[in-house]
Amino acid sequence: MKRRCNPCEAAMSHDPAVTNPDLYKVVFENERVRILEYRDRPGDKTEPHDHPDSIMYTLTSFTRRLTSGDQQRELELEAGQVRWVGAQEHTGENIGHTDSHAIFVELKEPAPAGSPTPDSPLGPSPATGES
Predict the structure, then answer these.
(1) What is the pTM of this model?
(2) What is the CATH number of the domain that holds 58?
């Protein structure tokens, strides 16, 4: 089964379930979505990997650093947050004192033709009301 169908994503080749199999686990997949479970511990780091457009649901509160090229972002996320994650490649590091546990719902279908493509921040988008 083909993992992704978005032509822009075809160039991405760093599947997190392959680059970091000890941290990412595929829990469901069909023709339209793939669902990943992510778990790590303080100090854990990921290899470079990419995500297509995704929804992230945090199951625990955690702090992490994401790096992509020269760009770096530190995030503190609370349990129970749902965030949009635009397609991107990055590495991650748990820089907090708690384990990370999150679910990613990866979209396989491209955005509808003519839909706006907002500039995606590194990591998840800010929660509603955050700057």
Answers:
(1) 0.80
(2) 2.60.120.10
